[in-house]
Amino acid sequence: MTKSIVLVTLVVNAQIAAEFWESHPEIKLNEITGPQFKKLHAAFSTLVDECTRKESELRELLTQREKLAAEVKSLTRRFRTTVSGIYGADSAEFEKLGGKRTGLHKSRKTRRETAAGEIPPPVSNGVRNTVPVAMS
Fold first, then answer.
1. Are the beta carbons of 103 and 84 closer than 8 angstroms?
2. CA 50 to the chain's CA centroid
3. I want to staple 34 with a disulfide (CB 3.0 to 4.6 A). Which of 19, 21, 24, 80 is the partner?
């Protein structure tokens, strides 16, 4: 059940209670009288209506935002691709636009090297061999 349906149901139920309370004014609920409840109900109902209108407006704005975001994203990618074509993918200009320079990509061998400059032993069946591998 969505929140708006719950709120509408609450407004309707409160209206029924207010009408019943009006026909039985002797009922009090912890110092709250029928007229006080009716006033509270009216304020709540007005607020629910106003929130519903604003949620609708917000939905429209969010839809517009998402459409513009998609367009800006597409144009930004196209612009970055154009700059890459003009200046090259390894240029400072391409990097300024958020692209990663091709010269900064690490090779597989470089990634596997440890801080000491050694290549770790190969992994077999998910278990690393503990025997050191001689390098020539």
1. no
2. 25
3. 21
